[in-house]
Please model this.
Amino acid sequence: MHGNHIRSAGELVFNAALFVISLVLLWASYGISGFSSLSSPGALPMAVAFVMAVSSGLILLDCWRKAERDRTRFLRDILPPAVIVMMLFITGYALLLVPLGFLPVSLIFLVLSILYLRRGGVVFAVSVSLLALILVYIVFRLVFTVLMPAGIVPEAEFLAAIGQIFGGGQ
Amino acid sequence: MQALEYFLIPWLDLKLLFLVAAGTFAGVYVGAIPGLSVTMAVSILIGFTFTWDVYPALCLMVGIFMGGVYGGSRTAILLNIPGAPSAIATAMDGYPLAQKGLAGEAIGLSTVMSFVGGLIGIVVLAIAAPTVSEFALVFQPRDYMLLAVLGILLVGSLSGESLVKGIFAGSVGLLIGTVGLDPLTAEERFTFGFTGLWGGISFIAVMIGMFGVSEALMQLHHVDKAAVKQKISRIVPNWSSIRRYLPLSLQTSSIGVLIGALPGTGGDIAALMAYDHAKRVTRDPEVPFGQGAKEGLVAPETANNAAVGGAFIPMLTLGIPGDAVTAIMIGALYIHGLNPGPMLMIEQPQMFWFITGALVLANIFMLIFGLTGIRIFTKIVEMPRAVLIPLILLLSIVGAYAVNNSISDVYWMLGFGVLGYFMKSYGYQLGPVILGVILSRLLDENWRRAIISEQDSIAGLFKGMLTSPLSLVLLAAVVLIFVSQTPLWRGVRGKLGLESKP
Model:
């Protein structure tokens, strides 16, 4: 908080939100066991929420006093379109992961985001995504044995078929 | 003798040997690619190695940690972009060397010196840790409580723009750690009536969100920046130049170990202090500092790798992490059923010697990979961000999902990713959040033990603190950190160049 007397776009709102959330959490922590005893389950949460409320209050106050705004614009410097779009992409990915399955959703996600970030080049995007997905699949699904939602892809049958080819049809 | 046997486990088992090698290799590249960090890699990896046995998982993570600390120096030298915070000081003289066409020599020298520093750090760890853990047995619950507070405060004050923001971030972490059913009384805490919150918030989801997603989103600001190409010639350094800088490297290694061993301070601070030390003790450098002095390259590189060994001391003996990376390593140990703290050394000495063995091995692999494969390296670093960022996001989601096979962990991860993004944008540090999450349980348990043993009397607790020399020292340290925010201390920070840290 020293030296820097200029505040960025949206900083005041963000700090105010943190302050309000801290107050809500302080109230919620009081609800755990109140002031019953110092060793109660709610003692530490309440102390921590109190520290949060005080510190976020101080931060907000300091931010409020910074009269001068710098030249940052919220939608250009703090939350540019690229960040918003990618946030939406990953949210969509998370929402569709279980119903559609890991492989198709990942492919769509990679192709769309590479296309968007590079602004063009469909062949490049598709080939790089396929390559990356195959690598990720081999490393994580087969080496790390991470279970991902299969969704609409008959993955188990597929793996079993490969296993039969290499394992002599057992 | 038995210690040696445990020490050699990762050396003699081919699979473990391979995993350390693979981890170190990956670490060097992860550390080197701007936008990827060791913290990010280790937190995403926890998700994947969750189901593994503890030995292989540790091998991989130790390798990544060691390689990652070193890898950051590569881009610091070549592009003037430190791949990791601990490489900030490396760029000051490393990049000028590269501009003079001496990039190969600079990389070679920094590799060998990182190896020297790393080795010294591990030797100190092997000697000091058993003593420290014996000493730690006399620690009272209140001492652990103070240590936890100290760790969060130190990370908050040293790494951020302001202590208040550091304290806030640390408290957020502590609060996240308390969500769920209270481990002692099974009372609900911050569950707001959702049974899904009874088990608490998965700290892996918090970690991946804060260090994977938010960093990737941050990188979107520079998505169009192209990588700079550099020609690299000879990379294996002369024996004479190694011998020449060896005395200095021994001094800066000791600085590195010491700083690394303090709770809350890690490789970045160690490197800056070592750089400052080198500047003071080098009477007439061939080239002035800041213009390509090799002393200015050797000092931070030895110190940040020596700090790795140092950081493992409080982590393994007290269960107190030194910085965000060690906090995540502690998280990994928890997940594999280990409980870092003084009892680890007594109940499972094999684990300690195993980790030491893996560290030495990772250090050797770091030397090998550091001096070879420079051609592939330049190719990988040139990987466009438009491909890299979606891949990080994809891996973050897969990693968060993999731990519990639960989609709600993914939502938490995304939520914390967005929160972390805004926190970073407005000058909050994320390191204290993770430290808070990891230390929350330790702080809660020890606070309650301490206050119950004093019959719920605050006066009794303070009396205990003031009459025990150890607690008094720790309490004094906590108070000192608050005092350290006075203008006097700021002058010292400015001198060390900490203010200009990004």
Notes: Chain B touches chain A through 65 residues (CB under 8 Å). Chain B has one domain: 2-226+255-496. Chain B has 23 helices and two strands.
